[in-house]
Design a protein that fits this description.
alpha+beta, 2 helices, single chain
Length: about 100
């Protein structure tokens, strides 16, 4: 389960980075190209962005399902929730198996 979660999280991060690069490209087109050229380029990239967003939704659904199936308890009955920090109101923990985050 742990390696599946890591794969999903990695792909999620890569896709989000791709969207950021697309957004920067679209912003730069306006300064360099004519409006008609910009529209052609922008339409193609917006279509790609929609496809990426659809994939991200599937990844997040799969990640959530795996996290819900995780017991957050190891084979030796040890707690897999690792303390990751706190703020003035709560302590934060992350499961070392599925990357699920919680606060107390």
């Amino acid at each position: 389960m742990e390696e599946n979660i890591k794969k999903l999280i990695s792909e999620d991060q890569q896709l989000r980075e791709r969207i950021c690069k697309i957004d920067k490209a679209i912003d730069s087109f306006k300064e360099v190209f004519t409006p008609s050229e910009t529209k052609k380029l922008t339409d193609k990239l917006k279509k790609e962005t929609k496809q990426i967003i659809a994939r991200l939704k599937k990844i997040r659904t799969a990640t959530k399902a795996l996290q819900e199936a995780c017991t957050h308890v190891g084979e030796q009955n040890e707690d897999l929730l690792k303390y990751v920090g706190h703020d003035s109101h709560k302590d934060y923990y992350t499961c070392t198996n599925c990357n699920w985050e919680t606060s107390v």
